[in-house]
Design a protein that fits this description.
The complex is a heterodimer of chains A (about 260) and B (about 400).
Chain A lengths: L5 H25 L15 H8 L1 H34 L6 H13 L2 H15 L5 H25 L4 H8 L4 H29 L3 H6 L7 H10 L4 H35 L1
Helix pairs in contact in A: 1-11, 2-11, 3-6, 3-8, 3-10, 4-6, 6-8, 7-8, 8-11
Chain B lengths: L28 E12 L2 E12 L3 E5 L6 H9 L6 E6 L2 E2 L10 E4 L11 H11 L4 H14 L15 H13 L5 E5 L7 H18 L2 E6 L2 H7 L2 E6 L2 E6 L1 H6 L4 H6 L4 E11 L2 E6 L4 E5 L9 E6 L5 E3 L17 E11 L3 E8 L4 E7 L14 E5 L6 E3 L2
Parallel strand pairs in B: 3-8, 3-9, 6-7, 7-8
Antiparallel strand pairs in B: 1-2, 1-4, 4-5, 9-10, 11-12, 11-14, 12-13, 14-20, 15-19, 16-17, 16-19, 17-18
Classes of the chains: A mainly alpha (about 260), B alpha+beta (about 400).
Membrane topology (chain A): Multi-pass membrane protein
Keywords (chain A): Cell membrane, Membrane, Transmembrane, Transmembrane helix, Transport
InterPro entries (chain A): Bact_Polyamine_Transport (IPR051789), MetI-like (IPR000515), MetI-like_sf (IPR035906)
């Protein structure tokens, strides 16, 4: 291990501070006893208790969770299929445009994705609500799943599948008992990524949502416009905790699989 | 097509368990390639190839990379379809049988162990596909672990094993279903030299004990020579020669085979005379050589004489003097200057330049412990070989 010089240490501290001090302040003030958001009035968990009574926020959180689960599941299935097509079908006609179209949402400004989806839903007369947000989030997140799963598939040793078939396992069962378990960490990481992306999306959700389907970010945003309330700090802290856990799980899943592969190949 | 399941699931280890009647059938072809062709885009990987592999035989497919040997093996496993010709397994055409229904198993070059399963899970994988009862699977897995000396490691994951252990798991997994034919694709390529040599003998002992037909693909001629009963030498999708290791080494069928297997000196010439006990060949420099045997040639035919480096007797000092003209010197004897010496420990290799510039390679066993070489650079030496040591090649 290389020792860090004082200069490196200071740079590291400043960089981390830039990233995390705002979040830290938010977390600290969520335990503030005072009603004033900028004045420290001692430690208290009263805003967390207050949350328990805030029906609107709870409903928004449930809506968000439902949408995140549904869209992440859909995105995982579609993204995995897209990744399989890109890695397994060889150089089929239209492979390049297909890949480009799958990856486009990665770089597309969310405002444009949101607006175009809104126009589409209006044009086809689709009633806007939780379903439209779910569809919108699926389009946004499936490309992330495709990227993650594709990187797993690229390192997949095809002779594993041949070995399974050679040992008497028909193709479909081979896919279920060998291919899927081996690429499962990639799929899990993709799912968790899609889940957290959907959970904290504000822009696309606000374009595509309708009455009765308010997601948590939309709710928080609308409350903050009327002035920051301490309850919001508490909600956000819980939110950060959930997202952090999901992201850590995702990276652990990939790390574990990579370590297993590194030795066995 | 029914799967091959041995009548006795638990073979007694350590002795030949073949039924007595089996021996008579030893020469029935287990595998027959009948004018098989396989093309990839513009390359013909296997070209109208015919080959019989006998039951219980250890057969090696040997050839340079890209010669089609792996394609041939993969066609037998079912991963490639022949474009033309038939492949018979125990007399049955297996063209329409998919890989998962063929009674052959393959050991992959990369081992292809399932990383998400334990060693025991890997070995049991094929047995579970047959839906055997649990106790029988457990018994067979234990038997296989014993066979490859991995007792006690059944609970490990592949990444917790050494390279040699993984190789043995792959072998056990492929043998667990008691296949009619075991296919081995460069099975020892990933092992270091010492382990590879040990494993060669282990594989031979195993094959003898199980009496299963083994077909191994290798580019390593030493490996093929050591292990195989017969070798098929492949080049450009065709079999250049099929025979026992000794046949291929001592009587190669073509210049290419002679050069591919081991070291060889090729001397071009024409047939000068045919006698009852052999033929006489004259090379471009007027030297005369005699070769024993009765090759199908006529006087005046262009032929090549193949002499392995170890067939030469190397004489130094006064014995080395004298002319090379026929009659004045003993038969099959040439003199030259040592141009290069390679000391390999067990043997020394000498490159000897003759008067006309031809370079011949001779190897001598270092039977004595010389630290100062007996033969030095630019020494004049005489190389000679008996007529029976030379092979006459017409192709």
């Amino acid at each position: 291990m290389r020792r860090l010089s004082p200069f490196n240490l200071v740079s590291l501290a400043l960089g981390l501070a830039f990233l995390y001090v705002p979040i830290l302040i938010l977390v600290v003030y969520s335990f503030n006893a005072s009603r004033l958001v900028t004045v420290w009035g001692g430690f208290s968990t009263r805003w967390y208790v207050a949350l328990m009574q805030d029906r609107a926020l709870q409903e928004a959180a449930l809506t968000s969770l439902g949408i995140a689960l549904a869209s992440a599941t859909l995105a995982t299935v579609l993204g995995t299929l897209a990744a399989l097509a890109l890695t397994r079908l060889g150089r089929f006609r239209g492979r390049l445009p297909f890949a480009a179209m799958i990856y486009a949402p990665l770089v597309m400004p969310e405002v444009i994705t949101g607006l175009s989806l809104l126009l589409l839903f209006v044009a086809v007369g689709f009633e806007r609500g939780a379903a439209t947000v779910t569809i919108a989030h699926t389009t946004l997140t499936m490309c992330f799943v495709a990227v993650v799963v594709q990187s797993r598939l690229a390192g997949f040793d095809r002779s594993l599948e041949e070995a399974a078939q050679d040992l008497g396992c028909p193709p479909l069962r081979t896919f279920l008992t060998v291919t899927l378990p081996v690429i499962a960490p990639g799929i899990a990481a993709g799912f968790l990524l899609a889940f957290s992306l959907s959970l904290d999306d504000l822009v696309i959700a606000s374009f595509t949502t309708g009455p009765g389907a308010t997601t948590l970010p939309i709710r928080i945003y609308s409350e903050v416009r009327l002035g920051v309330k301490p309850e919001i700090n508490a909600v956000c802290t819980i939110f950060i905790a959930v997202t952090a856990v999901v992201v850590i799980l995702a990276s652990l899943a990939t790390r574990r699989a990579e370590r297993r592969e590194a030795v066995s190949s | 097509m029914p799967r091959a399941v041995a009548p006795t699931p638990a073979r007694p280890a350590g002795r030949d368990a073949r039924p007595a009647g089996d021996r008579a059938e030893k020469h029935r072809p287990m595998v027959r390639f009948d004018t098989v062709t396989r093309r990839f885009a513009d390359v013909t990987a296997v070209d109208r190839l015919g080959l019989d592999i006998r039951e219980g035989e250890f057969f090696a497919l040997l050839g340079p990379s890209g010669c089609g040997k792996t394609t041939l093996l993969r066609m037998l496993a079912g991963f490639e379809r022949p474009d033309d010709g038939r492949i018979l397994l125990a007399g049955e055409d297996i063209a329409a049988v998919p890989p998962w229904q063929r009674p052959v198993n393959m050991m992959f070059q990369s081992y292809a162990l399932f990383p998400h399963l334990t060693v025991a899970g890997n070995i049991a994988f094929g047995l579970k596909q047959e839906r055997l009862p649990r106790p029988e699977i457990d018994a067979r897995v234990a038997e296989m672990l014993r066979l490859v000396r991995l007792e006690g490691l059944g609970g490990r994951r592949p990444h917790q094993l050494s390279g040699g252990q993984r190789q043995r798991v792959a072998l056990a997994r492929a043998l667990a279903k008691h296949p009619k034919v075991l296919l081995l694709d460069e099975p020892l390529a990933a092992l270091d030299k010492k382990l590879r040599e040990e494993t060669q003998f282990e594989l031979m002992a195993l094959q003898e004990r199980l009496a299963t037909t083994f077909v191994i693909v290798t580019h390593d001629q030493e490996e093929a020579m050591t292990m195989a009963d017969r070798i098929g030498v492949m080049n450009h999708g065709r079999l250049a020669q099929v025979g026992t290791p000794a046949e291929i080494y001592e009587q190669p069928r073509s210049r290419w085979v002679a050069g591919f297997i081991g070291d060889v000196n090729l001397i071009d010439g024409t047939v000068a005379a045919i006698a009852s006990d052999g033929i006489e060949i004259a090379d471009a420099a007027g030297r005369r050589f005699r070769a024993a045997g009765a090759p199908p040639v006529q006087t005046g035919d262009a032929v090549t004489l193949a002499v392995r480096p170890e067939k030469f007797a190397v004489a130094t000092g006064a014995d080395a003097a004298g002319a090379d003209v026929a009659g004045a010197a003993p038969v099959n004897s040439v003199a030259g200057k040592v141009a290069d010496i390679g000391y390999l420990g067990d043997i020394s290799v000498y490159k000897v330049r003759l008067d006309d510039g031809t370079v011949l390679k001779a190897s001598v066993t270092n039977a004595h412990r010389h630290t100062t070489p007996a033969i030095g650079w630019d020494d004049t030496v005489r190389l000679s070989f008996p007529p029976a040591a030379a092979a006459v090649l017409t192709e």
